């Protein structure tokens, strides 16, 4: 029986900000590209009534961790919508963290999504993926993409998703050891937030851009210098609000050539794009969801 589950990363191939909502969120259009790179969660259900988290990064074991939030919300929704007594629902969760924190790769959102999907199965609650995606929005705007599990164009706040198929690419991803607050970037007075909304067809044919990049590179010279250097060899930009930078290549060998030119004091990895989450490959292959 499978007890260890993948929690994949993503990059935003483009990110356009179309305006600001009354609730403080922004209207966006973005292309979420799933990556063959992930954290793992070993999840062992029990009848203790409590969820325990174990990981080498002790700072992650706190009540604000999205894994705890996901388990709590799932129990609350099961009681409210399905009248299921969840008082004894518990689990031990062992997190192996590979995705850098505050990097724009979606690690925390992905962890929440994997927790929701797997505990929904292990606890026998049987919510649909669409229902879980709606619940996931209470944790963060990026949680639904990992629950739906398909490379997609995202609209509204990133929660309205249109799955697409992208050609396989290889990405050189650099984490410059900088943790960036998404909230601070989106609240910057220098943020470009009036990009006109376009059709998905038009977006996919256009040169990709990230509206947050100007703000990030203005605040972090290290990131600006890395993008400038990498752009000499391949299309390069930040993902999300950073801090990770990615460069796009048609094959792994081309990415490896550039890898050796980069400083050794940063986390750097080469990864290929995928269209379906590996979690979905394990749970839903050939099954209608």
TrEMBL record:
<feature type="active site">
    <location>
        <position position="142"/>
    </location>
</feature>
<comment type="function">
    <text>Catalyzes the phosphorylation of the position 2 hydroxy group of 4-diphosphocytidyl-2C-methyl-D-erythritol.</text>
</comment>
<dbReference type="Pfam" id="PF08544">
    <property type="entry name" value="GHMP_kinases_C"/>
</dbReference>
<feature type="domain" description="GHMP kinase N-terminal">
    <location>
        <begin position="65"/>
        <end position="149"/>
    </location>
</feature>
<dbReference type="GO" id="GO:0019288">
    <property type="term" value="P:isopentenyl diphosphate biosynthetic process, methylerythritol 4-phosphate pathway"/>
</dbReference>
<dbReference type="InterPro" id="IPR014721">
    <property type="entry name" value="Ribsml_uS5_D2-typ_fold_subgr"/>
</dbReference>
<comment type="pathway">
    <text>Isoprenoid biosynthesis; isopentenyl diphosphate biosynthesis via DXP pathway; isopentenyl diphosphate from 1-deoxy-D-xylulose 5-phosphate: step 3/6.</text>
</comment>
<keyword id="KW-0414">Isoprene biosynthesis</keyword>
<feature type="domain" description="GHMP kinase C-terminal">
    <location>
        <begin position="197"/>
        <end position="260"/>
    </location>
</feature>
<comment type="similarity">
    <text>Belongs to the GHMP kinase family. IspE subfamily.</text>
</comment>
<protein>
    <recommendedName>
        <fullName>4-diphosphocytidyl-2-C-methyl-D-erythritol kinase</fullName>
        <ecNumber>2.7.1.148</ecNumber>
    </recommendedName>
</protein>
<dbReference type="GO" id="GO:0005524">
    <property type="term" value="F:ATP binding"/>
</dbReference>
<dbReference type="InterPro" id="IPR006204">
    <property type="entry name" value="GHMP_kinase_N_dom"/>
</dbReference>
<dbReference type="GO" id="GO:0016114">
    <property type="term" value="P:terpenoid biosynthetic process"/>
</dbReference>
<dbReference type="InterPro" id="IPR013750">
    <property type="entry name" value="GHMP_kinase_C_dom"/>
</dbReference>
<keyword id="KW-0547">Nucleotide-binding</keyword>
<dbReference type="InterPro" id="IPR020568">
    <property type="entry name" value="Ribosomal_Su5_D2-typ_SF"/>
</dbReference>
<feature type="active site">
    <location>
        <position position="10"/>
    </location>
</feature>
<dbReference type="GO" id="GO:0050515">
    <property type="term" value="F:4-(cytidine 5'-diphospho)-2-C-methyl-D-erythritol kinase activity"/>
</dbReference>
<keyword id="KW-0808">Transferase</keyword>
<dbReference type="Pfam" id="PF00288">
    <property type="entry name" value="GHMP_kinases_N"/>
</dbReference>
<feature type="binding site">
    <location>
        <begin position="100"/>
        <end position="110"/>
    </location>
    <ligand>
        <name>ATP</name>
    </ligand>
</feature>
<dbReference type="InterPro" id="IPR004424">
    <property type="entry name" value="IspE"/>
</dbReference>
<dbReference type="InterPro" id="IPR036554">
    <property type="entry name" value="GHMP_kinase_C_sf"/>
</dbReference>
<comment type="subunit">
    <text>Homodimer.</text>
</comment>
<keyword id="KW-0418">Kinase</keyword>
<keyword id="KW-0067">ATP-binding</keyword>
């Amino acid at each position: 029986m499978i007890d260890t589950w993948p929690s994949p990363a993503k990059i935003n191939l483009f990110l356009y900000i179309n305006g600001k909502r009354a609730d403080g969120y922004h209207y966006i259009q973005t292309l979420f590209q799933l990556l063959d790179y992930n954290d793992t969660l070993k999840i062992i259900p029990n009848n203790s009534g409590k969820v325990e988290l174990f990981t080498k990064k002790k700072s992650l074991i706190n009540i604000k961790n999205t894994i705890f939030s996901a388990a709590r919300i799932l129990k609350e929704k099961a009681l409210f919508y399905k009248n299921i007594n969840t008082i004894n629902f518990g689990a031990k969760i062992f997190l192996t963290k590979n995705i850098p924190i505050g990097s724009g790769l979606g690690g925390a959102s992905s962890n929440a999504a994997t927790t929701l999907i797997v505990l929904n199965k292990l606890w026998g609650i049987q919510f649909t993926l669409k229902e879980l995606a709606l619940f996931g929005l209470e944790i963060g705007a990026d949680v639904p993409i990992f629950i739906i599990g398909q490379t997609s164009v995202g609209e509204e706040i990133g929660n309205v998703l249109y799955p697409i198929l992208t050609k396989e690419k290889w990405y050189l991803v650099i984490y410059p050891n900088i943790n960036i607050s998404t909230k601070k970037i989106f609240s910057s007075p220098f943020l470009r937030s009036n990009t006109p909304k376009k059709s998905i067809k038009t977006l996919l044919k256009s040169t990709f851009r990230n509206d947050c990049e100007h703000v990030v590179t203005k605040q972090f010279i290290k990131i600006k210098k890395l993008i400038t250097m990498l752009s000499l060899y391949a299309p390069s930009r930040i993902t999300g609000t950073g801090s990770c930078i990615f460069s796009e290549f048609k094959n792994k060998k081309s990415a490896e050539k550039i890898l050796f030119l980069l400083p050794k004091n940063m986390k750097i990895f080469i990864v290929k794009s995928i269209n379906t989450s590996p979690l979905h490959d394990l749970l839903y292959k050939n099954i209608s969801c």
